[in-house]
Amino acid sequence: MQHMSGRRALMLALIASATAVAVAACSSAGVTTPSSSAAPAASKAFTSEWYGFSVNLSDEWSGTDATLDWNGEKLQGLTSPAFARFADASTGRTLVAAAAPVAAGTGLADWRAAMVQAAPASCSESASVEETTLDGEPALVWFATCGDGDAIKLATLHEGRGYMIFLDSQTATDDEDRNVFETIRSSFRFSS
Known about the structure:
This protein has 192 residues and is α+β, with helices and mostly antiparallel strands. The chain has a single domain (2-34, 41-190), classed as Mog1/PsbP, alpha/beta/alpha sandwich (Protein Transport Mog1p, Chain A). The chain has helices at residues 2-23, 108-118, 175-187, and strands at residues 44-48, 53-57, 61-64, 84-88, 93-101, 124-125, 130-134, 137-146, 149-158, 161-169, 189-190. Strands 3, 4, 5, 6, 7, 8, 9 and 10 form an 8-stranded antiparallel sheet that branches. Helix 1 (2-23) runs parallel beside helix 3. Mean pLDDT is 80; it is low at 1-41.
């Protein structure tokens, strides 16, 4: 029964996100918010020039772009300058994203395995993964439990780079956190 309600919530989140994506504007530099009055009051687009993507978030979120290249070898803290960082002060959720070059022929399962290895020793990574997409690219999603909180993680490959995205939360397996993650995931767009 819980599985069915999760699917319904996911579908509603995807429909709401698709609507927001259709009317949101993209910005041109750094992590910024659009000034267009066409964007709905409850959603704004954030752009990472550093890693070439945009994502729609509610008004409660704020963003900071990366200022250093990430080497893809270690998942650093939430405030690392190598990660684009988006935070919702009202809930304590933090979304981080980064990308690193990958060797030709690297498969998605290999990239995900590298990201599991890159996690801090204090994290327990779920062996269970879910196949999904990120702006049309195949992606893998899994959960992690760390000493400082839980995370929903996503790995994907795009134009020679491996992307790692995760939502840090105190209740990553909670339906509400999963709905937030799915709404963010469905609004994500590569700009390069």
